[in-house]
Amino acid sequence: xxxIVQKYGGTSVGDVERIKRVAARVAATRAEGNEVVVVVSAxxxxxxxxxxxxxxxxxxxxxxxxxxxxxxxxQETIALxxxxxxxxxxxxxxxxxxxxxxxxxxxxxxxxIVSIAPVNIEExxxxxxxxxxxxxxxxxxxxxxxxxxxxxxxxxxxxxxxxVKADVCQIYTDVDGVxxxxxxxxxxARKIHEISYDEMLELASLGSKVMQTxxxxxxxxxxxxxxxxxSFNDKPGTxxxxxxxxxxxxxxxxxxxDKNQVxxxxxxxxxxxxxxxxxxxxxxxxxxxxxxxxxxxxxxxxANLTFTVPRDDAHRSEKAVADVLAELGGGxxxxxxxxxxxxxxxxxxxxxxxxxxxxxxxxxxxxxxIELISTSEINxxxxxxxxxxxxxxxxxxxxxxxxx
Length: 404
Ligand code: ADP
Ligand code: ASP
Ligand code: MG
Prior knowledge:
This protein has helices spanning 16-31, 46-57, 63-87, 119-126, 153-163, 197-205, 213-222, 275-285, 314-328, 355-365, 389-399, and strands spanning 3-8, 35-40, 92-95, 102-104, 113-116, 130-134, 137-140, 145-147, 168-173, 194-196, 226-230, 238-241, 254-258, 261-270, 293-295, 302-310, 332-336, 339-345, 372-376, 379-385. The chain has 2 domains: 3-174, Acetylglutamate kinase-like (Carbamate kinase); 255-399, VC0802-like (2-Layer Sandwich). It is α/β, with parallel strands linked by helices. Helix 1 (16-31) packs across helix 3. An 8-stranded mixed beta sheet has the order 3-6-2-1-9-11-12-10, sandwiched between helices. The structure holds adenosine-5'-diphosphate, aspartic acid and magnesium ion (MG).
């Protein structure tokens, strides 16, 4: 007997028929003698619809109220999944994040998990029930409903797998696993059979939305091995685990594209020690995660500072920077859409050279102008024009011979 956590994403529970199919898979897993904890997302599109509805009433909805609203998406699917299991004779109970004992910090819309006390879950598993937990949500110590950031059901699943000491953690989605690039953009992308936490983390944080970044961080920290696989077939998926030596043989593991960033340009920034520090301190206090940064050489006492931030933080960033500029007595801030960040990732980059040369040459060949560059030990990223991004991803994928 094994203890298994299975997470089903939005497309996998997208309608009543699909929820019934999920129930059948869960029932089959239990029939093999396993204990099963299921985490479900909201039906695909529901979270986006709820956000759009909130914004149609108030362009800057209050974060606490937004969490109150967003939590209902997952609450619908847990109840329907439990009912689908009951309909085929399987004992099952649904739990909200609170009922599952998931306690978070109070930062609404992006709360971190502080602790999980799976008392109710353990009790129901002992009785032989399937436990279905709402992904993406938790509760603060003070009783406020929070959500864990977009894609947060992945985090619920991985954190629960650690908390209940699951033997297996499976992330069921609408693709067969993690590919060398988004298979919807790069048709000849290949499925990766095994990938290290670090590579998965980079791919996720650089825009491959197949796994939420924070969920991979959590898995790495607590050593949760998980598999990403399809809920539409029985093919083996991708195992995400600690790095093994042979993984370094591959220089570039995958290509990621992030279309959810905007470029913020601060021009005429008074060029004196501490100006940049104040800008980034203000952004930090506003909870904005700044990504790529360049500052040009100052001239006539002023400098230009350019950086990228997630699109959702554009408004927050502009306001934070404008406040600092007012204090500094100069400078202008503008936000530009229309950029994409393209990245190549691989632990093999630690020991191989020439990756930047191949990347930049390929981008030149497709006429993509590089606006910003950033690197880490295992990735190189560039910001390019949005409308060149998909063609560039295909060309870069081919240049590193990642295709099938
Ligand atoms: P779920 O609703 O199951 O959480 P998501 O939509 O969040 O699913 O993530 C799955 C999607 O991630 C796929 O449909 C695919 O288009 C996209 N994706 C982006 N990059 C990759 C990649 N490298 N490998 C696999 N899928 C990817
Ligand atoms: N429903 C949430 C979202 O769309 C969480 C998830 O699907 O993982 O972001
Ligand atoms: Mg997802």
